[in-house]
Amino acid sequence: MHEPVLSIRGLTKTYRGGTRALDNVDLDIRKGEIFALLGPNGAGKTTLIGAVCGLVRPTGGTIAAFGHDLARDWRAARARIGLVPQELSTDMFETVRRAVTYSQGLFGKRHDPARIEEILRGLSLWDKRDTQIRALSGGMKRRVLIAKALAHEPELLFLDEPTAGVDVELRKGMWDQIAALKERGVTIILTTHYIEEAEEMADRVGIIRGGRILMVDEKHAMMERLGTTEAVIDLSEPLAALPPAIAAFPVELAGEGMRLVYRGGSGAGGGAAEVARLTQALTRTGIAYTSLDIHDSSLEDIFVGLLGAQEVSA
After folding, report:
1. Does an H or E element contain 225, and which?
2. Where is the ABC transporter domain (predicted)?
3. Would you tell me which of 70, 82, 101, 135 could form a disulfide with 149, CB atoms 3.0–4.6 Å apart?
């Protein structure tokens, strides 16, 4: 197995007053993957990114990037790391092109106008290249941050809520850019509130709560292992109670007896066969139904199930 691009061991961060933002975090990131870090607000996602990018001083533990210990050889590793922060922090009176060009030189890269143009065109910013950043929409300002992070051609890119406040169409364009970066071999770590994006793009998923990593797994393996099947069956006539043959299945009555809700199975698609047996049992019992809607858990369903809906929305 190749050495990880990023290796974190026993990472802790305790702020004055005793708040522990990171609690003994271990994490390895593989070269060329898209890794989604999911967790509720205050879980430690931004603190973890800040610790790797030199914005937060850890209380304990080690961070190695590209084989360099960040505590001893920070400069050599940092030049290969890009960050798109959550906050829109940039010089609002600077033009788009000058801001991105400045970022290109910040890490010792030679001035490369062709590369700047390529980045700006890829993010649909070329027409705004001579516009002051303060005059841009929120979505365009977000794309400027991405352009700045890409200017020195990082090999490891952190995206902290990169599409927050961006409309659906622009969000899709930005995700196309992220997919293209992966094709070029860039390793990407992202946090996002849009869990469907993580489900679409990520190779692996980590779930963090209270500064602790609860789980890290391949996305598909996580969905296979923790996914369930839900089926909603609308009945032709209301049921006062479930007949024994139907009560044997993991179902409950809803909608004043006009609906059966099945929740079961193990792993993605694992309940489909049981739903088929349930519908056969309904037919044998003489219970008619008008519609059947069946779906497997999404990554968001699993995430909410692990953390609880109230905590996720907090």
Report:
1. helix 219-226
2. 6-235
3. 82
